[in-house]
Design goal:
- By secondary structure, the chain is mostly beta strands.
- The protein has one domain.
- About 15% of the residues lie in helices and about 50% in strands.
- It has an eight-stranded antiparallel beta barrel.
- Strand 3 and strand 4 form a beta hairpin.
- The longest helix has about 35 residues.
- It is elongated.
């Protein structure tokens, strides 16, 4: 004679088996749907991502009378001769007065980078480093400030900073302290007595007198505060390290101007 309790137990196990299999299938389908939609589960504990990077600045340089008296006295440009003395002459004959607006490469920065999630798709961080390639100081101007300090907040479009997806995109709001220098070449014909449309300079030119024609380095010096927006991507390698690239546009103050920068960084997830 069969045992009723044993029969009942076998029936319960037989019923539970299909239910467990169905539940496991449902979980697998849900995980597959999340993966197909590009949604990743953020890590249970936010971590710091730290690393270093390189940033390259370009500046939108204004045109006009680049090395004229008004341009230099207003601080819009500072023009230097080949001997690194500031140009104090007067352009004449139209040369040096017809430069157009252009985009020029400026300073390069080596930066330390740190960032941490504060909400599911939001992170805050900062960058600290030094800039290279600043222009010479004018006789009555300040020396180039190489320090770069930046705070930033980022929104992660495809999931949080700590998500497990390989590729992520982000938009950034940033601001801080930095100086951005850039220069252009300007050919100048010196104003002489008898030339129409100009008055020869009566300033004492440092160094040797200005020749009839010469090529000058015209510098724009922007900053030393800035604020801007950026957009970038992060690619995470297997393991706890990644590369980040972002393009940002900033407005500087009190010496105002517009600059665009490309930044490349390598970061690791702190334990």
């Amino acid at each position: 004679m069969s045992d009723p309790q044993a029969f009942s137990g076998n029936t319960t196990e037989a019923q539970a088996g299909p239910r467990d299999a169905k539940a496991a299938q449902t979980v697998a389908l849900d995980a597959g749907a999340l993966k197909a939609e590009g949604v990743s589960r953020p890590a249970s504990k936010p971590s710091w991502w730290i690393g270093s990077g390189l940033q390259m600045d370009t500046v939108l340089l204004p045109g006009g009378d680049v090395c004229g008296r008004e341009s230099q006295s207003s601080g819009r440009y500072a023009c230097f001769r080949g001997d690194r003395e500031q140009y104090l002459g007067t352009p004449g004959g139209g040369a040096g007065t017809d430069a157009g607006t252009t985009l020029a490469y400026g300073t390069t920065r080596v930066l330390l980078h740190a960032e941490r999630s504060v909400l599911a798709r939001l992170s805050v961080g900062g960058r600290l480093g030094l800039a290279f390639g600043g222009g010479p100081a004018a006789p009555q101007g300040a020396a180039f400030m190489p320090l770069h300090m930046e705070v930033r907040g980022s929104y992660w479009i495809l999931g949080g900073l700590d998500g497990d997806q390989p590729l992520n995109l982000f938009a950034t709001v940033l601001g801080g302290v930095a100086q951005i220098d850039a220069s252009r070449k300007v050919s100048v014909e010196e104003c002489r007595a008898g030339m129409g449309g100009c008055t020869p300079s009566d300033n004492a030119q440092p160094g040797v007198p200005n020749p009839d024609r010469q090529e000058l380095d015209a510098y724009v010096k922007l900053g030393q505060g800035f604020a801007g927006l950026g957009f970038g991507a992060m690619y995470r390698f297997p393991g706890q390290h990644a590369v980040m690239a972002d393009l940002r546009a900033v407005q500087t103050f009190p010496s105002h101007g517009t600059a665009f920068s490309l930044s490349l960084s390598y970061v690791v997830r702190a334990p």
